[in-house]
Amino acid sequence: MTATKVDWVVPTLESTDPPPSGSSDSVIGAIPARFASSRLPGKPLRLLAGRPLIEHVYRQAAKASHLSRVIVLTDDQRIFDTVVGFGGEAEMTPVDCASGTDRIASAADGWDATAIINIQGDEPLIEPQAIDQLAVHLTSHPEDLMVTLATEAGEGEAQNPNVVKVVIDLTGSAMYFSRAPIPHRRGDSAYRSLRHIGIYGYQRQTLLDLAALPPSELERCESLEQLRALDHGIRIRVLEVERAWQGVDTMEDLERVESILKQTVASAE
Questions:
Q1: Which of 37, 110, 183, 265 could hold 43 in an S-S bridge, CB 3.0 to 4.6 Å?
Q2: What is the CATH number of the domain that holds 128?
């Protein structure tokens, strides 16, 4: 697929050569991407402001200053060729990977890295500072095996099953994730509802161990892969950020993000 370039959307990649990843504190940003999507087929290659969606995600991730590499993992030759074509790094993975976590683990088994961040391939507005927050935490707190992000839930989000909520304990670790409104409020509680943001950081061995575990019943019940970690006693540290960002699941989301990009460029001129 050939994309029409629009230079004002994102800056040009400065280098196609990834930095060395063999240092003791290296963190790799991994972007799993598949062509099939029930709601938006071919999503990674859908054009957004003149560029493939996956290119926007890659370029945002590449702005993070604490990643040693950014790499797209896919089983689709079209996605691979597109990433290489815009100057990014990509790796082919097995077609039988059941999830993004499995896809990353299959590649990470051969990587020399301390930690890995799972960056969703449908979030072109992901903030590099959020990625850096995870990367810095993983390297400075090796005792935290898995880390994710959350922000205060907006109006109406607590009741929305498409918005995952998380409850944390007093140490900042996740107690539970759910599509249901948690915690249930009785009376005038001042407890803040937190919206989970689906980006994960793992110590490398934790990622490999997690991918080797079978899906749990809670995971199947809520259709939330992170519950597999909690079921098996893997603590998930939750870091709070100021806001979430718009992802792309539908054509309406794609149009909404394109409008946001254009507004951002217009306000900067």
A1: 37
A2: 3.90.550.10
Q: Which residue has the tokens 């993000």?
A: 257
Regarding pTM above 0.90, the answer is no
Q: What is the pLDDT of residues 166-186, one digit of tens each?
A: 999 999 999 999 999 999 888
Write the DSSP symbol of residue 123. -
Q: Which tokens belong to 258?
A: 């394109």
Residue 259 lies in a domain: no
Per-residue CA distances from 128 to 51, 131, 164, 209 (Å): 19, 5, 22, 27
* 262 or 234, higher pLDDT: 234
Pairing of strands 165-168, 69-74: unpaired
**Helices 100-108/204-212 angle, 10° precision:** 120
3-state secondary structure of 3: coil
Domain-located, residue 219 = yes
Phi and psi for 10 in degrees, rounded to 5?
Answer: -145, 155
